[in-house]
């Protein structure tokens, strides 16, 4: 066990919901009796991160953490307070936003500080708690993306089938959380805090009256590392996460969206292709599918480097002895964590309904008068009930018309009725009478 290269490595950090080795908490030389040999501790071999790089990394991590919390919090606010936004698909989108908020609160800041400082400075209970929460959140994200893909697949390929209800969507979301918690359960017992002698000169001899006390002769520093599972068990668990949490869902999602693209772009609109209503339905479906494909593609690309790193640790563990592995890890980890802040921008760019709701809340906040804490909620509630009245059926023409702020919109048969931002009938709104 002597020397700089001896001893098995011990994992302590997390990858994309799965634990990683070496670059974060590289505590080596765990002996059979549970003691630690200081001469086998290897973190000094890592590249010492310069101060300007530390400041740059801190800025980047803080930026994505704040953006994830604020942006996804806004998505949750929109879906929770607007009845017309509470469709089945938007229930799943809100669940995805909730998972990203949790990542922004717990996974991004705490893992970064531990990786950067090469010690655990937080309360001990947070050592297993933060990684556990990260695994759960990433599981929820990818399982929710899969559920959205399956739901859209049904709407596109079986448009005449009974649409799923919001109750069914809530049951599916509950199952997603239960599955995610079960898959993350090993992380709740795998990690713990240990203390090893710090690499500082030993303290001078203590006075005789203090020699018998329990004061440590050497300063120690805390590490969040593997204590509850063996190395072999952790390697198996990490591979299970890569397969269940990344590869399998993305294969399913890719196949599902490929079939939908073939149906939407490879065939004409159902019924009379010259009918503006059918053309609008097809256009709206394509627009939503494009938006969801972008969400999934960003997820896959952002997590790919970190998932690759996790996989390589199993087949080539010595990569953690590379001097600059900590810098490589920071780049991979930041890219993966940044995925939690992109979705609100995608919704705002590609979906008119979210655009309108975001603008509405921004306008209300900017012109809010100090009338009390509940004024924003009351104003949004009033707008939600007044902007759209109940549909009116035109008995003479047999068409359905909408009334917006007292102004009658064109009937559904009018080719201009559903164009632009006035469309209240896109897939995301949940008006399943026209679009699934």
From TrEMBL:
Species of the source: Megalurothrips usitatus (bean blossom thrips)
Subcellular location per the Swiss-Prot or TrEMBL entry: Membrane
Pfam families attached to this UniProt entry: 7tm_1 (PF00001)
GO molecular function, one term: neuropeptide Y receptor activity
Regions crossing the membrane: 53-80, 92-112, 132-150, 171-196, 235-258, 291-312, 324-350
Keywords of the record: G-protein coupled receptor, Membrane, Receptor, Transducer, Transmembrane, Transmembrane helix
PROSITE patterns named among the record's database cross-references: G_PROTEIN_RECEP_F1_1, G_PROTEIN_RECEP_F1_2
Assigned GO CC terms: plasma membrane
Domain G-protein coupled receptors family 1 profile as annotated: residue spans: 71-347
Source species, domain of life: Eukaryota
Coarse class of the protein's main subcellular location: membrane
Lineage of origin: Eukaryota, Metazoa, Ecdysozoa, Arthropoda, Hexapoda
Family the entry assigns: Belongs to the G-protein coupled receptor 1 family.
Entries under InterPro entries matching the protein: GPCR_Rhodpsn (IPR000276), GPCR_Rhodpsn_7TM (IPR017452), NPY_rcpt (IPR000611)
Name under which the protein is recorded: G-protein coupled receptors family 1 profile domain-containing protein
UniProt membrane topology term: Multi-pass membrane protein
């Amino acid at each position: 066990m002597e020397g700089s290269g001896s001893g098995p490595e011990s994992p302590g950090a997390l990858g994309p919901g799965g634990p990683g080795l070496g670059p974060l908490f590289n505590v080596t030389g765990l002996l059979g009796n549970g003691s630690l040999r200081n001469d086998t501790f290897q973190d000094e071999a890592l590249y010492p991160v310069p101060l300007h790089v530390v400041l740059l990394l801190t800025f980047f991590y803080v930026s994505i953490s704040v953006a994830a919390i604020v942006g996804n919090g806004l998505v949750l606010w929109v879906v929770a307070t607007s009845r017309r936004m509470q469709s089945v698909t938007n229930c799943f989108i809100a669940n995805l936003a909730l998972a990203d908020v949790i990542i922004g609160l717990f996974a991004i800041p705490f893992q970064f500080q531990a990786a950067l400082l090469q010690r655990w400075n937080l309360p001990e209970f947070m050592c297993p708690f933060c990684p556990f929460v990260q695994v759960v959140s990433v599981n929820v994200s990818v399982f929710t993306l899969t559920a959205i893909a399956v739901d859209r697949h049904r709407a596109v390929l079986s448009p005449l089938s009974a649409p799923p209800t919001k109750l069914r969507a809530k049951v599916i979301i509950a199952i997603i959380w239960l599955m995610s918690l079960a898959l993350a359960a090993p992380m709740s017992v795998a990690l713990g805090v240990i203390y090893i002698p710090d690499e500082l000169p030993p303290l001078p001899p203590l006075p005789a009256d203090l020699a018998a006390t329990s004061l440590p002769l050497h300063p120690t520093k805390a590490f969040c590392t593997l204590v509850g599972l063996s190395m072999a068990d952790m390697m198996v668990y990490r591979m299970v996460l890569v397969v269940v949490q990344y590869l399998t869902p993305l294969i399913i999602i890719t196949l599902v969206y490929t079939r939908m693209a073939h149906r939407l772009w490879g065939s004409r609109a159902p019924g009379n292709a010259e009918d503006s209503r059918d053309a609008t339905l097809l256009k709206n479906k394509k627009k939503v599918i494009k938006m969801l494909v972008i969400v999934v593609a960003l997820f896959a690309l952002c997590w790919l480097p970190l998932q690759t790193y996790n996989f390589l640790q199993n087949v080539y563990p010595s990569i953690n002895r590379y001097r600059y592995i900590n810098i490589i890890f920071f780049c991979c980890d930041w890219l993966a964590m940044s995925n939690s802040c992109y979705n609100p921008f995608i919704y705002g760019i590609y979906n008119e309904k979210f655009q309108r709701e975001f603008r509405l809340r921004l306008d209300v906040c900017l012109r809010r008068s100090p009338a009390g804490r509940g004024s924003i909620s009351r104003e949004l509630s009033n707008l939600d009930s007044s902007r759209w009245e109940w549909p009116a059926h035109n008995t003479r023409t047999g068409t359905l018309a909408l009334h917006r702020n007292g102004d009658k919109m064109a009937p559904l048969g009018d080719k201009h009725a559903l164009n632009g931002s006035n469309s209240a009938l896109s897939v995301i709104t949940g008006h399943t009478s026209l679009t699934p």
